[in-house]
Specification:
With 319 residues, the chain is mainly beta. The protein contains two helices and 28 strands. Helix content is 4%, strand content 50%.
Length: 319
């Protein structure tokens, strides 16, 4: 059986979806960008804490937001060169917030906004939480009216799935890209785990980490291989051989495999960013509908007509 609890989290709240039989749970910071803050899944008789989130409100403010832990990324993912873009002959700009001093804007502007709870419901085999944010079109950086609905579904046997739906509420076309930024952990350093990626092409970048437009053939982690000391802050384009791509993290010491799946093809999550922070205790696996700087280079950027929607899902399973 499942339950949903809304708990204090400093000055905000955390919504928890709980499997009361197994002790598994999901934590969502609806008041802070609908972020995925924690996920505990069970294999055998052991619970595994799989997401590196913020344990306290203070941690969220000092580190969680600046590193985009579990953040929903909208209306663009990754970097926007010089924070500027042009759409239908008008130029707009986002604040420069790239800590690497590369003069880029990072990950859009919804990471700290409040999403309202639209619906939550529990069933015998799952719990569902729907969150909603409406953009009025008055934001000078992104003056386009739209509605974002994020649906978390916590399953009894299939882990967590997250569906994102964006609807154009404006009277004209709007540009859209979105993604997610979860950091995964199992035990110890990332160096000790193994990784498997789907068929991909690497997105070549310049010195400011902005795509050059060139895709590089690669077989990196095509077959399960140890991470060791591999350095990654790399964008990839899926080769779209299937409707669902799977990224696997294998922790042999604990005999577990974390499968991160993302819908691909059409207007789905056809891009992927993999990032290992300098401390190497976690690994970010980021499903994205577009590449870095998509508002300028068009790689994966979707132009959505009035009243039309764009939807894509991803999820996490423990095997």
């Amino acid at each position: 059986m499942f339950a949903i609890k809304i708990e204090p989290f400093g000055k905000i709240t955390q919504v928890k979806l709980i499997n009361t039989q197994t002790g598994e749970y999901v934590g969502v910071l609806a008041d802070c960008g609908a972020a995925l803050n924690c996920l505990v899944l069970k294999k055998g008789d052991k619970l595994f804490d799989l997401i590196d989130g913020s344990e306290t409100y203070e941690q969220l403010l000092t580190n969680g937001l600046s590193t985009f832990k579990g953040s929903f990324l909208f209306p663009f993912t990754n970097r926007l060169a010089n924070g500027k873009y042009t759409f239908e002959n008008k130029t707009y700009s986002f604040d420069i917030n790239d800590s690497g001093n590369l003069n880029n804007a990072l990950h859009g502007y919804l990471v700290d906004v409040k999403f309202n709870i639209k619906r939550f419901e529990v069933f015998e085999e799952k719990a569902e939480l729907e969150l909603i944010y409406e953009e009025s079109g008055q934001n000078s950086s992104y003056p386009f009216a739209c509605e974002v609905i994020i649906k978390y579904t916590f399953h009894a046997h299939n882990g967590l799935s997250i569906q994102t739906t964006v609807k154009n509420l404006d009277t004209h076309n709007i540009p859209i890209g979105f993604g997610w930024h979860p950091y995964f952990k199992t035990s110890g350093k990332v160096d000790d785990i193994m990784l498997q990626l789907p068929e991909i092409e690497e997105i070549e970048i310049n010195s400011n980490m902005i795509p050059t437009g060139k895709l590089i053939p690669t077989s990196i982690f095509k077959h399960t291989d140890s991470v060791n000391n591999t350095q990654l802050d790399t964008g990839f384009k899926l080769k779209n051989t299937a409707s669902k791509a799977i990224i696997s993290i294998i922790d042999s010491a604990n005999s577990v495999r974390v499968n991160i799946w993302q819908e691909s093809k059409d207007t789905k999550f056809n891009f992927l960013q993999v990032y290992i922070p300098p401390h190497r205790k976690t690994i970010a696996i980021e499903p994205m509908t577009c590449a870095a700087d998509a508002f300028n280079n068009g790689m994966g950027l979707q132009i959505i007509a009035p009243e039309r929607t764009m939807e894509a899902s991803w999820g996490i399973e423990l095997k």
